[in-house]
């Protein structure tokens, strides 16, 4: 398939048109192989200078999810505790240390970020956010549902899962098989002319 060909309608439906942010989960497990497959898809999507700053902690056990519970807003506790997997999606503030591996044809890129903390921070957040979105699309592509959440205390999450301070949490995403009975009606979206400008 060339880059000009559209993917099949059922793929568009699965990724975008029929996909929903889930509020509840069926008691069906997600195994390690699915998580590895998900990562192997998401890692191939683009980031600037191939910087790949996302770092993910997959919480699968009840004990691991209990470490997250105190940081969650009240409305998100049951969603996370009942999800087969909770992905804590962070970004590596020192991602540039790996650029010799990830961007070997331009060794100067490492020093560019190492010498400019503001640029490194903006790059880590922007590209880590992109990778979090790629994770959600990859999950949907392999048949999983997603439920992204931003209702949490970031410092508590960082203390629980990124205690050395190198990585910082961006957002959280529940993964599994959604319970259709717990979906809300789909909210409206902006029309093209409300959101886009043609110049």
Describe, in plain words, how this protein is organized in 3D.
- The protein has 199 residues and is of the alpha+beta class.
- The protein has a single domain (23-180), classed as NADH Oxidase (3-Layer(aba) Sandwich), CATH 3.40.109.10.
- It is 41% helix and 15% strand.
- The protein has helices at residues 9-17, 32-42, 62-68, 77-82, 99-102, 108-114, 117-141, 154-161, 192-195; strands spanning 54-59, 85-92, 145-149, 167-176.
- Strands 1-2-4-3 form a four-stranded antiparallel sheet, sandwiched between helices.
Topology of helices and strands:
Blueprint: H1 9-17, H2 32-42, E1 54-59, H3 62-68, H4 77-82, E2 85-92, H5 99-102, H6 108-114, H7 117-141, E3 145-149, H8 154-161, E4 167-176, H9 192-195
Helix pairs in contact: 2-7
Structural class: alpha+beta
Strands side by side in the biggest sheet: 1-2-4-3
As residue ranges, the low-confidence spans are none
CATH architecture: 3-Layer(aba) Sandwich
Give the helices and strands as they follow along the chain: HHEHHEHHHEHEH
Question: Number of helical runs?
Answer: 9
Largest sheet: 4 strands, antiparallel
Averaged pLDDT, please? 96
Helix coverage percent: 40-55%
Specify the CATH class. Answer: Alpha Beta
CATH superfamily placement? NADH Oxidase
The CA-CA distance between the termini, in Å, is: 31 Å
Number of domains: 1
Gross morphology is: globular
């Amino acid at each position: 398939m060339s880059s000009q060909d559209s993917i099949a309608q059922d793929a568009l439906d699965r990724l975008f048109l029929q996909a929903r942010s889930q509020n509840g989960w069926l008691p069906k497990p997600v195994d390690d192989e699915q998580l590895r497959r998900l990562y192997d898809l998401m890692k191939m999507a683009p980031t600037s200078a191939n910087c790949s700053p996302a770092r993910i902690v997959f919480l699968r056990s009840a004990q691991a999810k209990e470490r997250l519970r105190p940081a969650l807003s009240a409305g998100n506790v049951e969603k996370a505790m009942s999800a087969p997997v909770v992905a804590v999606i962070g970004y590596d503030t020192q991602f540039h240390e790996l650029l010799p591996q990830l961007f070997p044809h331009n060794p100067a890129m490492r020093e560019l970020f190492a010498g400019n903390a503001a640029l490194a921070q903006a790059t880590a957040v922007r590209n880590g956010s992109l990778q979090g979105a790629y994770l959600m699309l990859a999950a949907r592509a392999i048949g999983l549902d997603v439920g992204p959440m931003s209702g949490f205390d970031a410092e508590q999450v960082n203390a629980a899962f990124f205690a050395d301070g190198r990585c910082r949490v961006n957002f959280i995403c529940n993964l599994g098989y959604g319970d259709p009975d717990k979906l809300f009606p789909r909210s409206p979206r902006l029309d093209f002319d409300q959101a886009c400008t043609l110049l």
